[in-house]
Protein 1
Amino acid sequence: MPIPFILGGIAIGTGLLGIGKGIKAGIDMKDAKDTNERANTIVDDAKDELEERRKASGKSLEALGSKKLYILDKSMNRFVSAFEQLKNVELTESVGLDELAKFRIDKQSLTELKEMGGYAASILGGTAAGALGGALTAFGAYGAAMTFATASTGTAIATLSGAAATNATLAFFGGGSLAAGGLGMAGGAAVLGGLVAGPALAVMGFVIGAKASAQVDEAYSNLARARKIREELETAGVACNAIRRRAYLFYRLFVRLDSLFLPLIVGMEKAIVAHGTDFRSFTDDEKHTVAAAVSIAGAIKAVLDTPLLTEDGKLTDESAFVAQDVGSKVGTKNVSTDKDSSVTLYVKADSAPKLWVWQPNGEKCSEKMGFSWDNRPSMQRNSEKKGWFSFTIPEGCYTRGKPFSFIINNTSQVDTDMTSSFYYDGNRWWRI
């Protein structure tokens, strides 16, 4: 009778179907697992990339803030001290200064610069370098006038630190690792120019666990979600890069302005020693020096007052305009700013060393810059090279083509054959 055979055939077919479904389920599970792992890798890689860009942008803002404070504390305070001594000052249009004439300062601007210099001195004089942290980021990101608007001399550091802790954008740049879920601010999600909104940051911790659904549809949904997250984080990374470039543009502009400013201040001080404080007794060259110093001071103030970022982290149009406007004017043939106008010494050290530098031909570089042995300047941390510090000697404070000698802290004298910018690692030196 054929019935048992037929039933047996059905049973075999059913068994084979079951095996087939089991095989497909196994394939689906592997596909789902592999897809989830791809999604997880996409998010992790995107997070790591943004983390690097975030750190670089934060360092650039911190370096800019440090440079602003340094110029205010050193060069600007020294200029204000000399200029306030002068009497009967009448500045007329001077040859070679037409491009910078619009930056000249009035009495109100001079008062503001004096106040800013006081804030800078109180911060640098009363705060350990390591404690500045987010305060430097805040000062780098925003204009000096806006930053210090509500601060008194005693609360300047608190004002800056408070801004760094509560402002979403600054917290983003100064906060903890994204991988650890840190954004360095109390409550809420950071916003970077509207590009990284709360939801995107919320999924930065997106990791598909081992118990994630094995269903293929859900796995591919996770993959699509991961790609969307990557797009948003890549957009934020582009914004970080743009901020970093603008910050370093301002940093280089300050270096250039200060290299012009310091020799002019030295010239003012020498004129006061030679002729007293009556501007009318100065020679034409000395009057030209004062006029140039006033113009450079005005240009520095214009850059100091210009914020790089808006409150929500967008680059300001004003910063692009000012950088172009001031940069083009101090780069003209009337005010030399060629690449050889200053010399920078880079030293490798664990902490900021004090430097004393001169040239064996008799040029007293540190003294020309207004320093004494007891008041030797600390070198500035290089934000791009970990463990390195820099010190720039502006044109007018050294003799071109002559080698440099220096003493770091209280160590032995080092004599080099370097006549331009160079590195020193404690054992040897080499040209840049």
Protein 2
Amino acid sequence: MSITELWGEKPDTDDVKQKQVFIMTPIREIAQQALTSGRLTVEAEKLIGQLLISASYTLEDLNAYMSLQLAAMAGRVKQESLELAAANCGF
């Protein structure tokens, strides 16, 4: 799920930082999208991190997050952030 899909338009980065706006999309929805597509975008990964930090999640969200982590470790979900990091290191 991209930031554009969540916000309707890409927000200005400074505006987001200033307002500290958290989208109340449940982690389980973001995780389900990644599990379905087999890909976790950088934007979705950052949003999950923000939601975890803000403690804006339920037990179902936490279980979905753990399932997503297991799928990523097993190679069933590719993390865009890791692919970008590997590309920048020349791997």
Protein 3
Amino acid sequence: MAKVHDRWHLSRPPADAEPCAEHSTKANVVYANAEHGRGHRWLVRYRDLSGKQCKESFEKRTQADSRAGAVTAQLDDRTFVNRERGKEKFKVVGERWREMAVHRERTETNVERALRLHVYPTFGNRQIGSIQRLDGQKWIKDRSAVIAPSSFATSWNACTSILKMAHQEGIIAKYPWEGLKPPEVFYPEIHPLHPDAVKALIVTASARYRALVRQAASTGLRQGELFGQEDEEPSEAVTVKQQMIGPDKGVPYLGEPKTKQSRRSVPQGPSVVEDLTRHRAEFPPKVVHIEDRTNPRKPVWRHVRLLYTNEHGGAIRRSSWTRVWARNIKRANAYLGRSGSKVRVPEDTTLHDLRHFYASVLIKNGATPKQVQMRLGHAKPSITLNVYTHLWESDVDKTADMMEAALK
């Protein structure tokens, strides 16, 4: 509720105070204070939707009463807009939102990057109250020409969350982008690597990383899950309980798996166990002092015996792995060429493509979407279907034969 106060006169005058000759009337005697005659006389005080104390000054009482009534009504129906706060820069509000938002460690890094690269360059220095629907349409068009819809989703979610928070706090009158939608995320068809290409990648991998490449192809583990494995006796299953995270800035650290479903146990065959045993003998796992953020509320530094390390005995970084992998592809293609095979490993192949290869083998051999989801650690079956539906559909359609057999 907004209230009107007289800035020039005492609300509780002492007994010996002299009446104000200029503004006292027969019906209302007032007593001047030290602010008498300075600035506007009438002050409207209230707390906005976020609870912040606000005040506005007016020359005439009628103006103050009118503003107080309007503010009270707007606060009651939650349509109030703080005119001064609407002048805040978008980046100021955005950083306040980012500090309060609860994100997983990896998501927090992605959000910071999205704001820095794709949101703040356009809106950062704009007054948040000046951003209109047309601005959103132009921004969507501009960013869609630069980044893929799946990447744009993070920028879109962050930007719209900031605008919605501004509306909820009474900084802007309404959310300006109602009805606008980001580009639909398109999942391109996955073309799994040929088995001969995968075998060549394994055979030609450097001795230090050969077991890692075989395990990647045989279990479908994510890159971070492979890099973050701690040393233990090889067995018929590998348990995923953490991942190695390489931030844009800073050093790698151990973090939570990507999703709750990513905490899983994945079977691995005898050839994997054999390669792991050989790897541990040839490259004894090294103890690395690394930050463990698997419990985000209680991060700790600890000594970890990593299964896979780089040439210097440290955690494998994404940047250095890119160079290792590029050399592996060249060796694999040279190997395939010498053997007379027409199969080649595409130059843009990544370690993640071994994960797709793993999924394709499961599907080809009759695995259900739920089974593939559980092995890959996807958050939900719909993600698995979005990525791999075409591989199930590629099988010969036997539905008619099924019905014929059922109705005989």
